[in-house]
Amino acid sequence: MEEISWNDFEKVELRVGTIIEAFEYPEARKPAYKVKVDFGEFGIKMSSAQITKHYTLSDLIGRQIIGVINFPKKQIGKFMSEFLVTGFADENGDIVLSSVAHKVPNGSKLI
């Protein structure tokens, strides 16, 4: 494992946002949803996530998640992702979202 400096970590904008909309993403190569997330002062951003095994669209609305909001936009098929949804792979490789245990203001930074 490569070590990074504290300054490297401080550059990563890991922020909390609330999912306000979620959509099917049938064009994706692997099963995925599109999500629209409110990051407070950083605005509303869209991304896609391969989270269909553990979540339904209705499960996602109102859920606070952690995203990296300072990566450049990334073209994913015909869709432009504006942030990285974070999560962990379970024992089957299916993604479980990173989230917070208690509600915090949208845009809060992971410290």
Automatic annotation (TrEMBL):
Q: Which CDD domains match?
A: tRNA_bind_CsaA
What keywords sit in the KW lines?
Answer: RNA-binding, tRNA-binding
What organism is this sequence from? Pedobacter chitinilyticus
List, alphabetically, the SUPFAM superfamilies matched: Nucleic acid-binding proteins
Which molecular-function annotations from GO does this UniProt entry contain?
tRNA binding
Which lineage is the organism of this entry classified under, starting from the top rank? Bacteria, Pseudomonadati, Bacteroidota, Sphingobacteriia, Sphingobacteriales
Residues covered by the TRNA-binding domain: 8-111
PROSITE patterns annotated for this entry?
A: TRBD
- The name of this protein is tRNA-binding protein
